[in-house]
Specification:
About 30% of the residues lie in helices and about 25% in strands. It is an alpha+beta fold. The chain folds into four domains: about 25-175, Immunoglobulin-like; about 185-240; about 255-375, Glutaredoxin (3-Layer(aba) Sandwich); about 400-465, no CATH class. The strands form five sheets. Strands 2, 3, 5, 6 and 7 form a five-stranded antiparallel sheet that branches. Helix 11 (about 310-320) links the parallel strand 13 (about 300-310) and strand 14 (about 330).
């Protein structure tokens, strides 16, 4: 009997050990009806940094591939999308959450990824699928509509089409908000609710779901409300947006060596504060400008301070690459610290703060003219910017920048040559770090818009006047 019990225990122990062994973590993709010329892209996101890990460029209509997932962290998310002929196709980018030691599958038919099915053992994927299920078909219709824009030749037709797309976005938002309200409170519901913080900070009382978000916030348990993310959401709902004439909100900030700093350390000086992030193209332009300004006249009465909300790794990378000559500080609480209490909703955002700590001006977006005027207001000498005779110069923002104009018949785009932000290293030769070249504009054109990339949400400068 004792021997039998020992054998039974041994078998049970082996079974338990076997069940605890993890398999390979991988994503298996099995898609049908994908036409030739369409590329299936699988990528990975860590925090705000994304990278492509696999391109399927096969010419068959059936696309099958498997990718092993390595070096997983709590923040690792994968994505899948479709491209066509080397350009991004209007197809919703789908998030994929993988469970360590398990296989995640993506199956579906056709080029609209919103109707594909993602099966994963990760609980976040279950939440994501619940949010997507009621709107999958709406996403497909929206993407199909956006892809029909190539057939629209008139400005009026483009405007009407965009209006229909926007209406579908609104419908999707309404349904997903209703879905969110119906789900039980857990970490994923809470995370999705906190994702509304940026929109609330940006739109304020105009945010159409303000009442619903506040009602859901009020039902949260205290452990969620008292977290950094919960407090940031509270600031968004109930905090006051800093305005000209207010004392600037202070917070714990850290330099690259981990030393603690505060804005109060600079009382008695003017401060030009830039709220930024490493992955903001215009912000990185300004970091080049800072070096030029310090080299050519910024005096001790003014300090230009860059504050980022990046991860420690991204902060270290930026400090090493940029070699700042002015104060560079990191908000270790990221979106939930100084960016939350100052309700920063766009990058870059600039504050001009006087020696008493009072905000004199607030500007969103990279505007070198405003920077120069602010420096002069603070009593700092700044050299005048003079463009070259007969040449219109446009600051380099991003590879693939666009000049958009209307020739009286339709809206036209000119795509820049491939001079990217990573192609220059010095700001020493003047106020313009690099030059983008475009095909000639039509004769008689008075103005154009400059866009950092061909997307609706890209950084843009509108109504740029052409020199006579």
């Amino acid at each position: 009997m004792k021997l039998k019990l020992k054998l039974m225990f041994a078998v049970a122990l082996l079974a338990a050990m076997s069940s605890c062994q993890k398999g390979e973590t991988k994503i298996e993709v099995n898609l049908t009806d994908i036409p030739e010329g369409y590329v299936v892209e699988l990528g990975r996101i860590n925090d705000r940094e994304s990278s492509t890990i696999y391109y399927d460029t096969s010419k068959t209509t059936d696309r099958k591939f498997s990718v092993k997932c390595d070096s997983l962290t709590d923040n690792t998310v994968y994505y899948i999308m479709v491209q066509k002929d080397g350009y991004r196709y209007y197809s919703t980018t789908m998030k994929i959450y993988v469970q360590d030691g398990a296989t995640t599958t993506v199956t579906g038919s056709g080029v609209f990824s919103s109707v594909w099915n993602i099966s994963s053992k990760h609980p976040h994927q279950a939440f994501e699928n619940k949010m997507m299920e009621p709107v999958k078909e709406l996403f497909r219709q929206k993407d199909e509509l956006r892809n029909s824009s190539d057939t629209v030749s008139s400005e009026e037709g483009s405007r009407l089409l965009q209006g229909r797309v926007n209406a579908m976005f609104d419908q999707i938002d309404e349904i997903q908000m209703s879905t969110l309200q119906s789900l039980p409170v857990d970490q994923y519901m809470f995370e999705e609710l906190c994702n509304k913080t940026g929109e609330i900070n940006y739109l304020g009382a105009d945010y159409k779901f303000l009442g619903q978000v506040e009602a859901m916030y009020n039902k949260l348990p205290d452990e969620y409300k008292n977290s950094k993310e919960g407090k940031a959401l509270y600031y968004a709902l109930h905090g006051k947006s800093p305005a000209v004439g207010d004392v600037v909100n202070d917070y714990d900030l850290y330099d690259i060596d981990g030393k603690l700093h505060h804005f109060a350390d600079y009382r008695g000086k003017w401060m030009l504060l830039e709220f930024s992030t490493y992955y903001c193209g215009p912000c990185r332009l300004f970091s080049k400008a800072i070096k030029y300004l310090y080299k050519n006249g910024i005096n001790k009465n003014l300090e230009i301070i860059d504050i980022t909300l990046d991860t420690p790794e991204q902060f270290a990378q930026m400090a090493a690459e940029e070699q700042f000559v002015s104060p560079l500080y990191n908000d270790r609480d990221m979106r939930n610290g100084i960016f939350a209490i100052n309700k920063i909703s766009a990058y870059p955002t600039f504050y001009l703060v006087n020696p008493d700590g009072v905000i004199e001006d607030i500007v969103q977006g990279y505007d070198m003219g405003w920077v120069i005027a602010s420096a002069k207001k603070a009593g700092a000498f700044v050299p005048e910017y003079k463009s070259e005779k007969g040449v219109t110069i446009v600051n380099c923002i991003n590879e693939g920048s666009v000049l958009r104009y209307n020739d009286g018949k339709k809206t036209c785009d000119l795509i820049s040559s491939s001079i990217g932000l990573n192609k220059f290293t010095s700001f020493d030769d003047g106020m313009v770090p690099c030059r983008l070249t475009f095909k000639p504009l039509p004769k008689g054109l008075k103005e154009f818009d400059f866009i950092e990339g061909d997307c609706p949400s890209c950084f843009r400068l509108e109504g740029i006047k052409l020199a006579e």
